[in-house]
Specification:
Largest sheet: 3 strands, parallel
Distance between the termini: 29 Å
CATH class: Alpha Beta
Oligomer: single chain
Shape: globular
CATH topology: Rossmann fold
Strand content: 5-15%
Strand order of the largest sheet: 1-2-3
Helix content: 40-55%
CATH architecture: 3-Layer(aba) Sandwich
Number of helices: 6
CATH superfamily: Response regulator
């Protein structure tokens, strides 16, 4: 997650780790867009929740730079075809309401999705699970071709654990 507001970071981290049971060591923080770019281009992240207004580099520029990096770089770590590195799914987090102009700007800067704060937890939960399942499919099968029925069943199991 990328956010310069410590309270927002704490809330998002609690949602991801406690409510979605994502291991704490799988949740990384960046406090500005430049730090996010550096981490994203050196690591392997499935999802980035990106604040829009931050010091040093805003979320718009950071997202565009991250997407451009992945469009122009080798997708395999250390040239290993079995170690696929996919671009992160980047979600804009706006403190203001999402209107038509902001949606257009998010599209222009290559965000994959957008939420306003405070965000609806169930929407975030579904989005995180969708991203995890698609990324898992890419890593297991090396393709974006998705067996929708299998993903639906897997998603239901994640949403409603027995």
């Amino acid at each position: 997650m990328v956010n310069d507001e410590i309270i927002t970071v704490m809330i998002l981290e609690a949602l991801l780790t406690k409510q979605l049971s994502i291991l704490t060591d799988h949740v990384h923080r960046a406090h500005n867009g430049l730090e996010a770019y550096d981490k994203a281009t050196c690591g392997n992240f499935d999802l980035i929740i990106m604040d829009l207004n931050m010091p040093i580099m805003d979320g718009f520029r950071s997202t565009r730079k991250i997407k451009e990096y992945f469009e122009s770089s080798n997708m395999f770590i250390n040239e290993d075809i079995n170690n696929l590195r996919t671009p992160p799914y980047i979600v804009a987090l706006s403190a203001s309401a999402i209107d038509h102009d902001l949606v257009q700007k998010c599209k222009e800067y290559k965000f994959d999705d957008w939420f306003s704060s405070p965000m609806d937890f169930n929407t975030l939960k579904v989005k995180v699970i969708d991203v995890i399942l698609v990324k898992k499919n890419i890593h297991l099968y090396g393709t974006m071709e998705i067996d929708e029925e299998a993903l639906i069943q897997e998603g239901k199991a994640l949403l409603d654990p027995v």
